[in-house]
């Protein structure tokens, strides 16, 4: 244990800090870090170096080189910089490299040097040029703050949703501030800058002077300032050598330290651990590194090489040409176990190989601290970087668990899983040195998988998903989809081979959309590959929109028809109509009967003229005739126009060899002319009535001769005419005329309808007149309708018809018809004897 704590450095009485190596860097830098623009992403992210950034001593013909490395120094990308001079580099939360140029343009590159997009910080920045820039992170995303040559600040709090904000002017500012930084308070970004001995805070509305409480006197300038990783604390380095530390709101002082060095430091960053009460600041000069806090002494390290500090959530990463180290506060659990002369419960469990292990365990059990001791070992294992020490602590925790009856195993199992994932991504070839405080405490597994995918480490990402048993849609499927999107960008492989490889790998994996992969292929200019990939897409609703976007409309129409989704077919048809000329559009429809039928349905409701053109092109005279008939009533109000449209329809029917429809159309034309003449001569409303209604209207108007003439002209059968006249006279209750009509000649419909009509009009008296004239086969029914049950019984008995006897018997009610019922029963009995 004594050897283990050899690199622990005390800062006061309550905290220890240690620095250990993450990687031995092998990135073969040709220049010192001081000669490069450097940007390192937090959470073990990549490092970007822009070499030769327009140094005067370099030849003008030498172009700068932008190199991107992993945290372990593995090269990820290298490209010649062909754009304008760069003032600052920085990484976004999505690990995109933001390059701020002198003209205010911000170029965005991916992790592998692929250009993503660019945006401008505004005309004012363009005119006045950029003096300095900061890339910062907020809960809304990544932001950019610019200091222009006019000594004005412009910022955007989220480059993903660019909204530029020009900050207020600082009164009397004639030169660049000695130092400045971005503060995020109450979800709003502010600028804090130093001008001589004064500090100014810029918000969206005003510029206000601020004074740090408890600042040592004699300060004439602030040389450096640093805000903590969480934007809660602020550190100020003054020209007197004092370092003031307090809250970012500048309302409370935490401590002040005199480092006795008045030279401005190269860098100053915070070094704190989540949920720790200790606060410390790391200050770096050319060959010295100092850790200061609320203690009279500081921790000092000698820097053998030019180094760069990267603030992290729980410490500081320090990298140079040869090494990459991590400086942080020793966690409380580790301190309890490994501190010299520590009496913490975890110490006893970890000393299980000691001769007094049994005595230690019994003592801890008696004090009821064994559960706490096991938890300390588990937690300390999470904060260790070396796998051997992790295993030792977990074995100690496992040993201590054996003496506990009900210790929940969840924390132990979860720590083993997390450490296995952390060790995998910390590997030199992967180069993501995350700590336990960063993952899983801050970064989620989904974010970690996204970062592995961004580095194209698909096999490792899939292994982690399978190890953690993540749902396919959240894990393996999503990673395979990203792999496929990367695969389509490999232009040295044929379309056929890429499509086959993707299908063999993905198959029917749930959650994978072939249409998304095809869209990526189309975006890369590989249209044929996109079409091949769409063949594997089972959802037509995803295939068709992309095919339309690729201007493969005819193929899209075939896919939409195969799907059977009429809405999808209509979508393609409307797209084709706008894309093709009229002739080509109609020819395309002719080759697709289902699409043609659907388009006709659409035209019937929306575009009648187009429908007529379709029928004409197809020589479909039958449908063309039907079209003109509908048009004659829908569009024509004048009788002449309607008759003309009907004549056109009749001609079309003759061409279609449908003589029945043609004759019917001609009859309708005759009827319309006749109705128009009747309206002129008799008045009233005849137009648009049917033939039957016209006859009925004439009878109701007392124009019987005209009605009969109309019937003869249109060859209405006698039976139909008698029915029309019978119904009309009954509705008029013209019983006398009805009787005359019945006697005019023998009724072709018989006389039962007369009885029925009279009964319907509640006139039994008139009905009885016709009951006697009803033929023998309908006599019983007629007598029953007029209520003569007795006579109906006599007729039924006379006919000896069982059905008629039953019908009469069903109409016999109570004592009134009792004799008639008995009479029928006797007749039935006699018939049965015979």
Automatic annotation (TrEMBL):
<dbReference type="GO" id="GO:0042144">
    <property type="term" value="P:vacuole fusion, non-autophagic"/>
</dbReference>
<keyword id="KW-0472">Membrane</keyword>
<dbReference type="GO" id="GO:0031902">
    <property type="term" value="C:late endosome membrane"/>
</dbReference>
<dbReference type="InterPro" id="IPR006926">
    <property type="entry name" value="Vps16_N"/>
</dbReference>
<dbReference type="GO" id="GO:0033263">
    <property type="term" value="C:CORVET complex"/>
</dbReference>
<dbReference type="Pfam" id="PF04841">
    <property type="entry name" value="Vps16_N"/>
</dbReference>
<comment type="function">
    <text>Plays a role in vesicle-mediated protein trafficking to lysosomal compartments including the endocytic membrane transport and autophagic pathways. Believed to act as a core component of the putative HOPS and CORVET endosomal tethering complexes.</text>
</comment>
<dbReference type="GO" id="GO:0016197">
    <property type="term" value="P:endosomal transport"/>
</dbReference>
<keyword id="KW-0458">Lysosome</keyword>
<dbReference type="GO" id="GO:0030897">
    <property type="term" value="C:HOPS complex"/>
</dbReference>
<keyword id="KW-0653">Protein transport</keyword>
<feature type="domain" description="Vps16 N-terminal">
    <location>
        <begin position="4"/>
        <end position="414"/>
    </location>
</feature>
<comment type="similarity">
    <text>Belongs to the VPS16 family.</text>
</comment>
<dbReference type="InterPro" id="IPR006925">
    <property type="entry name" value="Vps16_C"/>
</dbReference>
<keyword id="KW-0967">Endosome</keyword>
<feature type="domain" description="Vps16 C-terminal">
    <location>
        <begin position="512"/>
        <end position="830"/>
    </location>
</feature>
<dbReference type="GO" id="GO:0005765">
    <property type="term" value="C:lysosomal membrane"/>
</dbReference>
<comment type="subunit">
    <text>Core component of at least two putative endosomal tethering complexes, the homotypic fusion and vacuole protein sorting (HOPS) complex and the class C core vacuole/endosome tethering (CORVET) complex. Their common core is composed of the class C Vps proteins VPS11, VPS16, VPS18 and VPS33A, which in HOPS further associates with VPS39 and VPS41 and in CORVET with VPS8 and TGFBRAP1. Interacts with RAB5C. Interacts with STX17, MON1B. Associates with adapter protein complex 3 (AP-3) and clathrin:AP-3 complexes.</text>
</comment>
<dbReference type="GO" id="GO:0005769">
    <property type="term" value="C:early endosome"/>
</dbReference>
<protein>
    <recommendedName>
        <fullName>Vacuolar protein sorting-associated protein 16 homolog</fullName>
    </recommendedName>
</protein>
<dbReference type="Pfam" id="PF04840">
    <property type="entry name" value="Vps16_C"/>
</dbReference>
<dbReference type="GO" id="GO:0003779">
    <property type="term" value="F:actin binding"/>
</dbReference>
<dbReference type="InterPro" id="IPR016534">
    <property type="entry name" value="VPS16"/>
</dbReference>
<dbReference type="GO" id="GO:0006886">
    <property type="term" value="P:intracellular protein transport"/>
</dbReference>
<keyword id="KW-0813">Transport</keyword>
<dbReference type="InterPro" id="IPR038132">
    <property type="entry name" value="Vps16_C_sf"/>
</dbReference>
């Amino acid at each position: 244990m004594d050897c283990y704590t050899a690199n622990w450095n005390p800062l006061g009485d309550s905290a220890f800090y240690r620095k250990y190596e993450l990687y031995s860097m092998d990135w073969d830098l040709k220049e010192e870090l001081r000669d490069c623009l450097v940007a390192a992403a937090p959470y073990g992210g990549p490092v970007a170096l822009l070499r030769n950034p327009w140094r005067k001593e370099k030849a003008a013909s030498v172009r700068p080189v932008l190199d991107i490395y992993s945290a372990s120094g593995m090269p990820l990308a290298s490209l010649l910089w062909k754009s304008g001079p760069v003032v600052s580099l920085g990484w976004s939360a999505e690990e995109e490299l933001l390059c701020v140029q002198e003209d205010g343009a911000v170029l965005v590159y991916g992790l592998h040097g692929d250009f993503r997009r660019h945006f401008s910080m505004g005309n004012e920045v363009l005119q006045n040029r950029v003096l300095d820039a900061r890339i910062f992170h907020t809960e809304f995303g990544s932001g950019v703050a610019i200091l222009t040559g006019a000594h004005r600040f412009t910022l955007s709090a989220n480059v993903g949703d660019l909204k530029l904000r020009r900050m207020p002017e600082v009164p009397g500012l004639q030169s660049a501030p000695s130092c400045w930084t971005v503060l995020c308070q109450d979800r709003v970004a502010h600028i804090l800058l130093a001008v001589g001995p004064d500090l100014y805070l810029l918000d969206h509305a005003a510029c206000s002077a601020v004074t740090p409480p408890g600042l040592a006197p004699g300060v004439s300038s602030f040389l450096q300032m640093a805000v903590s990783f969480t934007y809660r604390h602020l550190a100020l380095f003054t020209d007197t050598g004092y370092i003031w530390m307090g809250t970012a709101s500048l309302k409370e002082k935490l401590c002040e330290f005199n480092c006795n060095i008045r030279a401005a430091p190269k860098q100053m960053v915070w070094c704190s651990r989540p949920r720790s009460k200790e606060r410390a600041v790391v200050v770096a000069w050319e060959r010295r590194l100092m850790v200061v806090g609320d203690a009279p002494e500081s921790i000092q390290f000698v820097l053998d090489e030019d180094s760069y500090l990267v603030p992290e959530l729980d410490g500081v990463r320090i990298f140079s040409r040869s090494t990459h180290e991590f400086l942080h506060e020793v966690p409380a659990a580790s301190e309890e176990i490994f501190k010299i002369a520590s009496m913490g419960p975890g110490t006893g469990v970890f000393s299980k190989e000691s001769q007094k292990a049994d005595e230690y365990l019994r003592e801890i059990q008696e004090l009821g601290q064994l559960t706490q001791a096991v938890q300390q070992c588990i937690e300390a294992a999470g904060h260790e970087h070396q796998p051997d020490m992790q295993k030792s602590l977990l074995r100690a925790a496992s040993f201590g668990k054996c003496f506990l009856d009900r210790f929940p195993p969840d924390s132990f199992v979860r720590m083993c899983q997390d450490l296995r994932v952390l060790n995998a991504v910390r590997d030199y070839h992967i180069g993501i040195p995350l700590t336990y405080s960063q993952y899983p405490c801050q970064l989620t597994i989904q974010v970690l998988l996204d970062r592995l995918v961004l580095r194209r480490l698909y096999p490792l990402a899939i292994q982690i998903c399978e190890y953690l048993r993540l749902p396919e849609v959240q894990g393996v499927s999503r990673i395979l989809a990203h792999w496929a999107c990367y695969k389509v960008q490999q232009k040295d492989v044929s379309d056929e081979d890429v499509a086959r490889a993707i299908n063999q790998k993905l198959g029917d994996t749930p959650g994978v959309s072939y249409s998304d992969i095809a869209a990526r292929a189309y975006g890369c200019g590989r249209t044929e590959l996109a079409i091949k990939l769409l063949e594997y897409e089972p959802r037509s609703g995803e295939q068709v929109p992309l095919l339309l976007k690729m201007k493969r409309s005819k193929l899209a129409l075939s896919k939409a028809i195969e799907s059977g989704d009429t809405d999808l077919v209509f979508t393609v048809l409307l797209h084709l109509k706008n894309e093709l000329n009229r002739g080509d559009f109609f020819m395309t429809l002719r080759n697709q009967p289902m699409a043609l039928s659907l388009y006709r349905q659409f035209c019937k409701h929306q575009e009648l003229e187009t429908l007529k053109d379709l029928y004409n092109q197809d020589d479909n005279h039958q449908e063309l005739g039907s079209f003109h008939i509908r048009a004659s009533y829908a569009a024509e109000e004048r009788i002449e126009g309607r008759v003309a449209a009907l004549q056109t329809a009749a001609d079309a029917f003759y061409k279609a060899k449908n003589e029945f429809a043609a004759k019917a159309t001609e009859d309708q034309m005759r009827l319309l002319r006749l109705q128009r003449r009747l309206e002129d001569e008799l008045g009233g409303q005849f137009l648009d009535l049917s033939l039957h209604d016209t006859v009925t209207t004439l009878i109701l108007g007392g124009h019987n001769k005209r009605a009969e003439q109309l019937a003869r002209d249109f060859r209405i059968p006698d039976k139909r005419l008698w029915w029309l006249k019978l119904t009309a006279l009954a509705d008029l209750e013209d019983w006398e005329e009805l009787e005359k009509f019945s006697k005019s000649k023998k009724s072709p419909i018989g006389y039962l309808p007369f009885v029925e009509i009279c009964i319907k009009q509640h006139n039994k008296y008139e009905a009885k007149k016709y009951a006697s004239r009803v033929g023998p086969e309908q006599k019983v029914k007629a007598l029953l309708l007029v209520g003569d049950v007795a006579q109906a019984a006599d007729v039924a008995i006379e006919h000896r018809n069982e059905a008629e006897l039953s019908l009469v018997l069903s109409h016999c009610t109570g004592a009134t018809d009792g004799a008639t019922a008995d009479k029928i029963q006797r007749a039935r009995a006699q018939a049965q004897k015979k």
